[in-house]
Specification:
This protein is α/β, with parallel strands linked by helices. The protein folds into two domains: 190 residues, D-Maltodextrin-Binding Protein, domain 2; 99 residues, 3-Layer(aba) Sandwich (D-Maltodextrin-Binding Protein, domain 2). It is built from twelve helices and ten strands. Strands 1, 2, 3, 4, 5, 6, 7, 8, 9 and 10 form a ten-stranded mixed beta sheet that branches. Strand 5, helix 7 and strand 6 form a beta-alpha-beta unit. It is globular. It starts with 11 loop residues before the first helix and ends with a helix.
């Protein structure tokens, strides 16, 4: 499968080292894979039911149950931006029977923001696969004077901390993308946190803030209605829901890329052979009609990274967001 993250982000050396280690898997690993699974598997979703992470976990769980021949139960353990559920899985037995549907916040940004995080996304998990990604889109009101990314940059440079962007809260992917934009464009935007995307979106539509780095699916409705103007997407290529809209890199900030993403994780120490068996099953799930429909409806891009590339990618994401947090003075 095409992996849009891995080029230039995943350390080739780290991926090679992890891959080489898997070639020398112990006989115990082989035995574990032969008998695995022989009981139900639990996928922990670190958020309440009903969101996109919950939906993705349930669809993947259905496919895994069919291919692996065991029930797959989705358990919601919400709290603290996903870190409660992530910590639960990190402390679980590394036997492949307790998995996490991890996200950008719980498995990368939280480590950058918090010194007191009770787990390490890099060392306390063995990723099965980074499953999907979703870029954001920089949107302004249709009647705004900002017609391009360069308009935003010019204004923000001339008026530091006057260009406002709304987000669902501190530490969210929308917030961090705004901080990355400021860092890489040499500007200082004014962050306006809200209690959820809906509130931020309403204030953008009402003219109380200048812009949002918003969810593509949610904002595309208002783009179609003519209420919002998309200036650029944060991915590495044109998004299928926003034909003709450039990437931020194409609009003038070379190399810019920021995504929210979701993936399947196991506790560190899970046998390599079990991880490989899970990865094979997850990869097959991504090809099912049920998952393809979810991707098309939600604007998700398929990743399907293997365990080695996923491990390297997580390390690169933690490093990237740590630099952004430190530059912005956001460390808690």
């Amino acid at each position: 499968m095409k992996k849009i993250f891995s080029k230039g982000l995943v350390s080739a050396g780290l991926a090679l080292a992890i891959g080489a280690a898997s070639m020398f898997a112990s006989p115990a690993n082989a035995v574990a894979a032969d008998s695995y699974p022989d009981k139900p598997i639990t996928i922990v979703v670190p958020f309440p039911p009903g969101g996109s992470t919950d939906l993705l976990a349930r669809k993947i769980g259905e496919a895994l149950s069919s291919s692996l021949g065991q029930p797959v139960v989705v358990e919601n353990r919400g709290g603290a931006g996903g870190t409660v559920g992530a910590n639960y899985v990190a402390k679980s037995d590394p036997d492949g029977y307790t998995l996490l549907m991890g996200v950008t916040g719980s498995n990368a940004i939280s480590a950058a923001l918090r010194d007191d995080l009770p787990y390490s996304p890099v060392t306390d998990f063995d990723p099965v696969s980074i499953v999907i990604s979703s870029p954001l889109v920089l949107v302004v009101r249709e009647d705004s004077d900002f017609k391009s990314v360069q308009d935003v940059i010019a204004y923000a440079k001339a008026n530091p901390e006057y260009f406002t962007h709304g987000t669902p809260g501190v530490g969210t992917s929308m917030h961090m993308t705004g901080e990355l934009f400021g860092l890489e464009s040499g500007t200082k935007l004014l962050h306006v946190p809200y209690k959820g995307s809906a509130a931020a979106l309403q204030d953008l539509l009402g003219g109380q803030i200048n812009a949002m780095f918003g969810d593509i699916l949610v904002t595309s409705e208002y783009v179609k209605s003519g209420d919002l103007r998309p200036l650029a997407v944060t991915g590495t290529k044109e998004h299928f829901l926003l034909k003709g809209v450039p990437t931020i890199a194409e609009a003038g900030i070379d190399g810019f890329a920021a995504f929210s993403w979701q993936g399947v994780f196991a506790p560190a120490g899970t046998p390599t052979a079990v991880l490989d068996k899970l990865y094979t099953a997850v990869s097959a799930a991504l090809e099912t009609d049920a998952l393809k429909e979810v991707f098309a409806q939600r604007g998700f891009l398929v990743e399907g990274m293997n365990p080695a590339d996923s491990k390297a990618f997580i390390a690169s994401e933690v490093d990237k967001w740590t630099k952004v947090v430190e530059a912005a003075g956001l460390k808690k």
